[in-house]
Specification:
Helix content is 70%, strand content 0%. By secondary structure, the chain is mostly helical. The longest helix has 24 residues. The N terminus is likely disordered. It holds the Pfam family Sigma70_r2.
Amino acid sequence: MYHKIRVVDTSSINAEEAFESLFNELYTRLFAYCFDYVKDQYVAEEIVEEAMLFLWERREDLDHIKNIKAYMYSVVRNKSYTFLNKKQQTVHLEDEMYDAPVEIDSEIIEEEVYAVLIEALEILPEKCRKVFELSCIEGLKYKDIAEDMGISVNTVKSQRARAIELLKKNLDNHPLLLLFLASL
């Protein structure tokens, strides 16, 4: 679930504070969203920063925008397409991407779920998190992980199991992610 964000000019909060709050809330999610398109960390960072600058420069003209978050996802998506087109890469666009805001909403929900998972992973102890990422996200075999990290296969298995248990505790109110963890 997501909520609408509006920058409101009141006497208790100035435009810079509102923008900083919005930036801090959206940057990581917009970066992950952009990275899915461009597959380059540096480029994704640049695109998101350009999008946020675009928002800041037009802050006076944003009254007509009802959902800043959806608007920013659209800006980042469009800037990603522009980058990909400039690089002469073929981008197959689905017709539905330009239809209704429902499509944008499902993309936002997907990114929100991804952001929740990333936050939960950051809470894990370092070794535990690395084993989980290599095993469950990158799909490496226990033996390869053990060699890579300089630990035994049994340690890999126990760290993976520990990671899943800790994630289940941290994500107990996110049924979709719990379903994902149960499938591992």
